[in-house]
Structures are given as C-alpha cells and as structure tokens.
Design goal:
30 helices, about 725 residues, globular, mainly alpha
C-alpha cells in the first residue's frame, strides 16, 4: 500500500514536470505555428485539467509575470479557466503592488488587459480598473513618483487594449501639470543633439499618441487568439473585482540613418520601439547574472529579422564605443565612469588592440577636456588589468603625455636629498628594525628620538601630534611593505587618534604614481579603523589634492568610503531590528503561555536566544552613534562641494570669465554622482541638508543639483 502511494506521488510529479515544461516552451523555436502549438497544448491540458487544475493555474500565473513577451500566447490559453484565473491574476496584481514589485504588477495588469481581447474579461470592467488607477493622478497629497507609476502602468498597457478617449484625456491633463525637475539629473547627455533625452513618461505618451494616430495598429505584438476568435467569443466574460519606483530617461543613440543596411529601425515615437526596448530590458534584467545566457537570449530575439537587432541591443546596453567617444563632451559623469570601466575591460579581452590614430585629434585639447581625460583614465584602468610596459608598448608615441607614470614608490628617505631631511637617521634605524621583525613597542621607542620641531610638515598639525614622527613611520613601513602591504599595520594603530589626515598625506606622497595602491591602502586603513571615513573625505577636498581632484581614482576612494559607512549603518539597523523582534516574540510567547496553559504550547524562544533589554539599549546607542557619523560624513562632503563650487563661481564672476569650464562640469557631475549613487542613505538627511547647506541663498547652479535629487522622490 505504501509502495503504491509512493509510485502514485512519483508519477504525479513526472506529469506535473512535463506539464510545466510544455507550458513554458509553448510557441518557442518550433517548426509549426504558434496556433498549432496552442491547439496541441490545449488538448494535453484538457486531459489533465481535473487532477492538476491548481498546478496548471499556478504555472500560467507565473508565466504571465515572468515571460511578459509571451503575454498573448498565455492569455489565449486562459479561456479554459475563466473567472478562477481572473481572480488569481487580480490577487497576483494586488500582492505585487503590496510588495513593491513594480514590473510584476505592470505585467499582471497588461495580462488582464489582453484577456479582454480573448473575451475572458469585459472591456467595461477593465476600463473601470484603468480609470480607478488614473484617479491616483488627482491625489495631491501623495508623492509624484506614485502618481507617475500608475500613469506609466496604464499607458504601457494600452498597446494591448484600445483605450477610450476620456482615459487618454485624463492622462494628458496629468502629464501636462506634473513636475520634471528630476529630468536633468538623469540625462546621459547634457545636449539634445542629435537625439533628445526624453523623460520616460513623455516618451511613452508620444508613442501612445502615435499609436492612436495609426488607429491602434502595431506590428510587434503576436496575437494568436485571432485564429481562435470563433471559439473565444463564446466564452463567458467576467468582471474584475475592485481593486513606486523612481523615474528614468529614455536612452537614445541611433535613428534610422545610422542603420543603412537591412530592416529599418522603428521611429523614436513608434510604439514598436517601446515594445522592443522593453522586451530587451526584460531579457537583460532576467539573465544579467549569466553573461553567456544573456547574449544567447538577446541574439535569439524573436523579431530579429524585422528590426536592426544589433543597433537596438547596443542602444539598450549603451556601449557603442565610437559614437560614445565622439559625444563624450556632454556625457553625464557617472556614465563617463562606466564607459571608462567597460572600455578598459573590453581592451583587456582583445589584446589591448585599438585604432588609436583615429582619436589623435584629442591630443590638441586641454588635459581636462573629456576626450583626452577619457583616454588617460582608460589607460589607468588598463594598468590595473596589465602592466606598465604593456601599456607603453600598445600606445603610439604621440600619446606619451597621456600614459600613466611608472607605478613605483617615491621614498624620500632614500633619495639624493635624504641627507638634508631631519628624519633620515631615524628612518634608516626603523628600516633595520622592521626588517628584523621587531615588535610594535620597539618601533615606538625608535620614533621617540624624532624632534618635534623644525619640520616643514609641522604646520599641518594643531600641536597635538608630531607630524614628522608619522611621516617617518608611515613612509618607511609602507615602502618596506610595497610588495606585500599587509605586513605590519599593528603598529600604525599607535597613531590612531593622532593624525589621520597626516597618514593619508604620506600615503599620497609615497604612492602618487600608483592609483590602485592608494585605493587598496586606504580601503585597508578604513577596515582597520586606523583612519575614519570623515578624515578620508576631508583629505580628498584638501588643497594638497587639488591636482588630483578630477581624477577617477579619487572618487573611487570617496565612494568606497561612503559605502563602507552606509554598510555599517545598515548592518547595525538590521541587527537591532532582529534583536527587537526576538525580544517581542519572547515576551509574546511567555504571555501566551500564562494565558493559555491548557492548550498545547508553542515552542518558546529560549533564554539564550532572547536578548536582554540592556543589550538592545546598547545596540540602539551604537546605531545612533553610527547615524551621527554618517550624517557628519555627508555634511562634510556636501559642505566641501558647496565651498569649492561657490569659490569658483565667485572668482569667475569677479574676473569676468565664463564659469562653465571643464573643471566646473566635472565637479558638478561628481556632486550629482554622490546624490544618485547613495540616494537611499542621503534621502534620510534631506531636510537637514536643506536647512544647513542647500539654502535658498545658494547659487542656483549648485542648488539645482539638490532640488533635482529631491524631485526624484517627490
């Protein structure tokens, strides 16, 4: 009996797996038509409907959300389930909204809209639902991003459903009155030539209007249910039960003139362009962890013979080197960084081969101009992926000024001028001691012989530490550990509270020709808590670093510093929430036990699991201290940005010069980058920043960056 039961379970599992495979693969890479595929699948499903109804229902619901590109294939199947399936999809839609799964909610809504075309849902009830969603656009007390999403969800559903004019009119009224302050913060290019950088809702609205002009006729969506219309029109129609991500800019790089051979690229405002791009985005989002699978899925795009597929893919991925380089002058700073990182990686995969001569006109431009800057930064990144001689050999001699310096330490106590430096004797003693693997205490004893005056670096100190002592120690230790710099950091902690900026200054002095070494060393010092995040931020904006200020590695250091702080705050927050939950559950468990001793008791949280109230209080204090440090870090960063930008604008005004220099554009771009890269954490301090720093009397050029950031979640 038991064996028979096991066999039955095993057979059922096999049937379920076979059904799932058939449903998932319907309409894919088959020699027969989608329609005959569907007929075959329907006959299989009908045979198993009685036993596996719920399983089939669940698979179809998952397919609706996970494979939106096959929406019309699955809606055609669903006339067999009728009201039961409609209820299930409405539940999926509501749950997706509740869990902030915005794309899943949008795909569920689209599926419901397409069920109208299969006569499963009445057009009237769908339009009531869409109308209810558009009602959100009239709610003045909710954030604009919430209203935007509901309008976007409805608009992106319309290609599947011919809409009533009144619905479109309500959408148009909303779109005309909404704020687009955030638009400039999200643009890839600051220029609209040759392709406009449209805000996503404006672009989709233009595409829907074009679709309406074309009498709602589009050429991209397959509609297999048309073949079965005689069957589907007899199906019972059902009524629907009653029922915020951030905005973006639509990236444009090509038009039809850029694609001379093969099929035409759909126009920027054709609905086909929206549908193709959305499908490509979905493929990339689904397969981005597996590059080979992603490439295979992109290249097997179902409509590749109707469109110039490579141009569409590249535009969605934004990696067409030649065009990007020619338009780099107006490129957003964050996109510039991504372009550098991608192109250097690309070169490393193709033996660092490139036709550099075609770009040599950039050598006539100022070094801060984006084109020579791009090549310089690419070569720095290539250096991390290769070695200096290889970089020198791959570049034409005309590019000599853009090639990175040889990455070697500049240890001043071994230079020709070393004899005249006050710390040389002690530095040499220290070299001997460290090579003999001395204890940290011995290092401290040797450093005691260093005089506290007569050192040119003394003005950096506030009198509370000996700058020369730090200079000798840091330079000597890091120089000796230049092959393996994790050697002897234990002794550095002796200076932990004394002079962190001084330590950073010496790292730069020693390793100024080796950007990667500086990034790794500072990351290490932060991990060991030898320098804190605020010290790194202050050092980056110091006068000493003026010459490095527009170089990518410095901002890499700032972002890793901010991320380290953010990660620390998030971790403490998570630990505190977990401890509070355990405490609440333990209290609830004990009170349940007292109130209901006659019933079978749940397993209570043990004394060992339950944190004490004192522990929770200490965790709260730690989190509060971390929040204070995080706020302080952001205040330092934004205050320094405001100071240097205000100084530049004032000086330009006084001298009668145009303030819009390459330096200014890089600096404004970096300010914008800090806001966008760390938006979730910065958002917490928006009101503090507005009160203390981004006040109404600030220059509008600087204030606008902050206002654009705030508008993203307005």
């Amino acid at each position: 009996h038991r064996r028979n039961k096991r066999r039955r379970v095993s057979e059922n599992q096999e049937i379920e797996d076979r059904l799932e495979s058939l449903i998932l693969r319907v309409g894919e890479r088959s020699t027969s038509s989608v329609e005959s595929n569907l007929e075959g699948l329907v006959s299989v499903l009908e045979a198993d409907l009685g036993t596996f109804r719920l399983k089939i229902l669940r698979i179809l619901s998952d397919c609706a959300v996970r494979m939106p590109e096959k929406c019309t294939v699955y809606t055609t199947l669903n006339y067999k389930f009728g009201g039961e399936f409609v209820d299930h999809m409405v539940k999926t839609f509501k749950e997706s909204l509740k869990l902030c799964r915005w794309d899943a909610a949008r795909y569920s809504l689209r599926f419901l809209a397409d069920l109208v075309n299969c006569h499963v849902i009445s057009a009237t009830s769908l339009l009531q639902l869409l109308d209810t969603m558009i009602d959100v656009s009239n709610e003045d007390t909710v954030p604009q991003v919430r209203r935007d999403w509901f309008v976007f969800a409805v608009l992106s559903t319309l290609p599947w459903e011919s809409a009533l004019e009144s619905l479109l009119l309500r959408i148009e009224v909303y779109l005309n009155k909404r704020s687009k302050k955030h638009h400039n913060a999200l643009r890839v290019w600051s220029s609209d030539a040759p392709h406009p950088q449209e805000e996503y809702l404006d672009c989709l609205w233009a595409q829907i209007r074009k679709l309406r002009q074309d009498n709602w006729a589009e050429k991209h969506i397959p509609r297999p249910y048309l073949v079965f219309d005689s069957i589907l029109c007899e199906a019972l129609q059902h009524n629907l039960p009653a029922i915020y991500p951030m905005p973006w800019v639509v990236y444009r790089m090509f038009d039809y003139t850029d694609c001379p051979d093969g099929p035409n690229l759909p126009g920027a405002h054709s609905i086909e362009r929206f549908l193709i791009e959305e499908h490509l985005h979905h493929i990339i989002e689904t397969y981005h962890h597996e590059r080979k699978d992603c490439a295979a899925q992109l290249l097997s795009f179902p409509f590749k013979h109707k469109i110039p597929l490579e141009y569409c893919i590249v535009e969605v991925l934004a990696q067409a080197t030649e065009i990007l380089f020619m338009r780099i002058d107006s490129m957003n700073t964050s996109c510039f960084d991504r372009f550098v990182n991608w192109f250097s990686y690309h070169l490393s995969n193709f033996k660092f081969t490139w036709s550099w001569d075609e770009w040599d006109s950039c050598l006539l431009l100022d070094g801060e101009h984006p084109r020579p800057k791009f090549i310089q930064e690419v070569l720095q990144k290539c250096l991390r992926l290769s070695y200096h001689q290889r970089i020198t050999e791959m570049m034409p001699t005309t590019y000599a000024k853009l090639i990175p310096m040889t990455p070697v330490p500049n240890y001043k106590y071994a230079n020709e001028e070393a004899a005249s430096l006050p710390g040389t004797t002690v530095a040499h003693q220290l070299v001997v001691a460290i090579r003999q693997k001395c204890a940290p205490e011995e290092v401290v004893n040797i450093l005691k012989d260093i005089p506290s005056s007569g050192y040119s670096g003394e003005e950096m100190s506030d009198g509370s530490f000996n700058a020369l002592k730090i200079d000798v120690f840091v330079q000597t230790l890091l120089n000796l550990g230049s092959k393996s710099f994790s050697h002897s950091f234990a002794a550095i902690s002796k200076f932990h509270s004394e002079a962190q900026i001084c330590i950073l200054h010496n790292i730069f002095e020693l390793w100024s020709s080796h950007q990667q070494m500086m990034v790794v060393l500072i990351d290490k010092l932060l991990k060991l808590q030898i320098v804190d995040c605020s010290a790194v931020a202050t050092w980056i904006f110091s006068k000493e670093m003026t010459g490095e200020f527009t170089k990518m590695y410095l901002w890499e250091i700032l972002h890793l510093t901010i991320k380290k702080m953010n990660k620390h705050v998030i971790k403490l927050n998570s630990e505190l929430s977990e401890a509070k939950d355990k405490l609440a559950k333990a209290d609830s468990s004990s009170s349940d036990s007292e109130d209901d001793s006659s019933h079978k008791r749940k397993k209570p949280i043990t004394h060992a699991d339950k944190p004490s109230e004192e522990v929770v209080e200490r965790m709260e204090e730690k989190l509060e201290a971390a929040n204070v440090n995080q706020k302080r870090l952001f205040l330092i960063v934004f205050q320094r940005f405001i100071m240097i930008l205000s100084e530049h604008l004032l000086r330009s005004d006084t001298d009668g010069r145009d303030p819009d220099t390459d330096w200014y554009r890089w600096t404004i771009g970096r300010l914008q980058q800090v806001f966008l890269m760390h938006h979730e954490q910065v958002q917490k301090y928006s009101s503090t920043l507005e009160t203390l720093l981004f006040t109404s009397d600030l220059d509008t050029h600087i204030l606008e960056v902050f206002q654009q950031f705030v508008a993203l979640r307005a």
